[in-house]
């Protein structure tokens, strides 16, 4: 998801893409983002104008859950927007019409070559917005305009008609600023907390992973993978993260043909990784299993429980440190009781995260750090009965 500056970010990124293209092919051309009547008021020698003339809500995304929301939580849905742009070339002088045609052709070719706005494009042109963190790409498509559509548009602009083309940018997902609700997890389910019975599936004939016994693992703990024919070679574990790349865990213990164990590195970043088991045969050949998701929990290293005071405006400022660095494109939240609070923006990987809570009320709140939907441990590991850890809390005064 992105912030409310995402609309401006799309406009600025399109302007930058078009400026690079026409500036190279038709030197001296300036790309603007003005209303059509204003763009031509100064009669530029050569120019290209891109104007956001309409927006609509994408109904297909209205009921989609926001990124990072987990079952049982409630958050205001995203605002999914489709943006429509009018691209108009301008040129004066004896070769005005011909120059305008050249500019228009270059612009259409550039947008044809950019069917979607990549994170690199958005970061480069619009650093003021976090649109580059949106999981869904913003796609650019041509919109046919008929004679009636053109007539209505230029009549609304109160400007002389000029040859133009329309494009749509879809979808821009704007995150709601209203606080959500993230209930505390259930610590016991079923008789004696045993839950429902489960049975293992039959083993196959090829090496394959079937499950990760505990799919949410803190760094430094054992990761237990089960499957069949896992003794078909010397095992090593490859963990893959979409932002952080691959991490090889060579020390893997082969218990038997249905189970292997590995220790999660202490410095492994929090978030959701993909675990793949690589089996090396005696002849040196390798075989990789399919990937299974595993969630690595963040670990708060700040002194707990924390105690903070509200300022005169009833606002609380918190700094929380974690064991492994957090990437700036990861989604980070601090959960005070049932209130999720997004982290203040940070430009590079860091272990120190800052949070601001407006309108905070005095009290003691359970404290969780959430990175890409994975929470820091909240249960008391030393207790025989399931209960929340007394230290995992913040006291607001």
Describe this structure in words.
- With 397 residues, this protein is of the alpha+beta class.
- The chain has 3 domains: 6-174; 200-296, Immunoglobulin-like (Sandwich); 306-396, Immunoglobulin-like (Sandwich), CATH 2.60.40.
- It has 5 helices and 24 strands.
- The protein has a 6-stranded mixed sheet with strand order 1-2-3-6-5-4. Strands 8, 10, 11, 14, 15 and 16 form a 6-stranded mixed sheet that branches. Strands 17, 19, 20, 22, 23 and 24 form a 6-stranded mixed sheet that branches.
- Helix 1 (6-25) crosses helix 3 and helix 1 (6-25) packs across helix 4.
- The chain is globular.
- The model has no long low-confidence stretch (mean pLDDT 89).
Helix content class: 10-25%
Which blocks of ≥5 consecutive residues have pLDDT under 50? none
Number of domains: 3
- Separation, N- and C-terminal Cα atoms: 33 Å
Give the helices and strands as they follow along the chain. HEHEEHEHEHEEEEEEEEEEEEEEEEEEE
Overall geometric form: globular
């Amino acid at each position: 998801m992105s912030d409310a500056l995402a609309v401006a970010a799309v406009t600025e990124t399109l302007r930058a893409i078009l400026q690079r293209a026409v500036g190279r092919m038709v030197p001296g051309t300036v790309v603007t983002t003005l209303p059509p009547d204003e763009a031509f008021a100064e009669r530029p020698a050569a120019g290209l104008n891109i104007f956001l003339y309409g927006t609509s809500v994408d109904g297909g995304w209205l009921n989609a859950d926001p990124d990072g929301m987990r079952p049982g939580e409630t958050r205001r849905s995203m605002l999914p927007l489709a943006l429509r742009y009018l691209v108009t070339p301008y040129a004066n002088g004896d070769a005005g019409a011909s120059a305008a045609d050249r500019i228009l052709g270059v612009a259409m070719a550039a947008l044809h070559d950019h069917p979607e706005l990549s994170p690199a494009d958005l970061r480069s042109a619009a650093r003021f917005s976090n649109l580059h963190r949106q999981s869904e790409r913003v796609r650019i498509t041509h919109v046919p305009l008929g004679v009636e559509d053109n007539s209505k548009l230029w009549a609304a602009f109160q400007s002389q008609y000029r040859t133009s083309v329309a494009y749509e940018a879809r979808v821009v997902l704007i995150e709601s600023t209203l606080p959500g609700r993230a209930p505390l997890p259930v610590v016991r389910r079923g008789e004696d907390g045993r839950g429902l019975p489960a049975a293992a599936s039959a083993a196959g004939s090829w090496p394959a992973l079937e499950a990760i016994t505990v799919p949410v693992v803190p760094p430094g703990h054992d990761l237990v993978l089960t499957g069949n024919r896992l003794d078909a070679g010397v095992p090593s574990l490859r963990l893959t993260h979409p932002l952080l790349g691959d991490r090889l865990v060579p020390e893997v213990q082969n218990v038997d043909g249905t189970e292997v164990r590995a220790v999660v590195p202490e410095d492994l970043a929090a978030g959701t990784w993909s675990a793949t088991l690589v089996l090396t045969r005696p002849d040196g050949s390798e075989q990789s299993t399919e990937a299974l998701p595993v969630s690595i929990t963040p670990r708060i290293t700040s002194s707990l429980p924390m105690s903070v005071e509200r300022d005169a405006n009833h606002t609380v400022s918190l700094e929380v440190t974690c064991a492994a660095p957090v990437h700036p494109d990861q989604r980070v939240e601090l959960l005070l009781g049932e209130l999720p609070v997004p982290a203040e923006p940070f430009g590079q990987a860091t272990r120190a995260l800052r949070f601001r809570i407006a309108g905070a009320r005095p009290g003691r709140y359970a404290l969780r750090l959430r990175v890409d939907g994975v929470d820091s441990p909240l249960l008391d590991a030393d207790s025989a009965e399931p209960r929340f850890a007394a230290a995992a809390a913040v006291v607001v005064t």
